[in-house]
Amino acid sequence: MSTTTPGAAAGYRASRTLDFATEFRRQAARRRTHLALSFMVVLPLIILAAFQFGDDGDNGDEGGGGRFSSLVDLATTGGLNFTLFTIFVSASFLLVVIVALFFGDTVASEASWGSLRYLLAVPVPRARLLAIKLAVSLAYSILAMLTLAGTALLVGTLRYGWTPLSSTVAAEVPPGEGLLRLLGILGYVMLSLLIVAGLAALLSVSTDAPLGAVGGAVLLVILSSILDQIEALGVLREFLPTHWTDAWLGLLSTPVQWDDMVKGAIASVAYTTVFWGLAFWRFTRKDIVS
């Protein structure tokens, strides 16, 4: 059975116009990729230096530090706890920005440079172009998260040792099981960030301004987080994209609390499907003039 596109030139195969490896190498050469991944290495070092040279006195409990202060106290008790703290302080904003950067910049930057129409003139089918770009953006987002966690685990273990994973809501978890729970936390955080990825991708195909796509996605996530703090909204808060982002804390309980994570996973898949579906619908019908 021939896979040649009807009416295409002899030898043309849509599946050969742009592959994952080619786009991965193209994005690897980008300065924003270098900066994003480099910062994932630098951040744990900054946190470690802050613990080393910061004030060892009061952590600000009288100011209502609560859960944050408790995690600060636990962060210096072992490499796993240091990694957990790094994830905790990064998930609500830094990782949101990183994911929005990789997904929001991917198509809008090509449009702003004027290279998008040349890619489509190869010709690369629009749906394939967007699918490859989203897959590469997802790969770099996962790579950034693993780089952050891996660096934190390395420097934290070297400084504080290989000790059980601790939390304020459960007994200590043995190091081996603790490492598996950390991987589960990373998986859930990435799953929840797919909402950001979908929103950023939709904005990326809707504008020629990369900063607008990235910033728009981040601002909408911040808005959702603010609304989620308004208890007067009641059950409506459960439908906000960011309501279940902290459900990974259930992995620190003994036994593990799955209920909120299951709800969060369902919400993330639903929102991501809608956003990516709209992105494909918009991009395949958009008049590309730049």
List its salient traits:
mainly alpha
Strand content: under 5%
Number of helices: 10
Distance between the termini: 36 Å
Topology as a string of helices (H) and strands (E) = HHHHHHHHHH
Determine the fraction of residues in helical runs and give it as a percent range: 55-70%
Structure, explained:
The chain has 290 residues and is mainly alpha-helical. Helices cover 66% and strands 0% of the residues. It is built from 10 helices and no strands. The chain has helices at residues 20-28, 31-53, 67-75, 79-91, 94-113, 116-120, 126-160, 175-204, 210-228, 259-285. Helix 3 (67-75) runs antiparallel to helix 4 (79-91), helix 7 packs antiparallel against helix 8 (175-204) and helix 8 packs across helix 9. It is globular, with a radius of gyration of 21 Å. The protein starts with 19 loop residues before the first helix and ends in a 5-residue tail after the last helix. Residues 1-5 and 59-64 have low confidence and may be disordered.
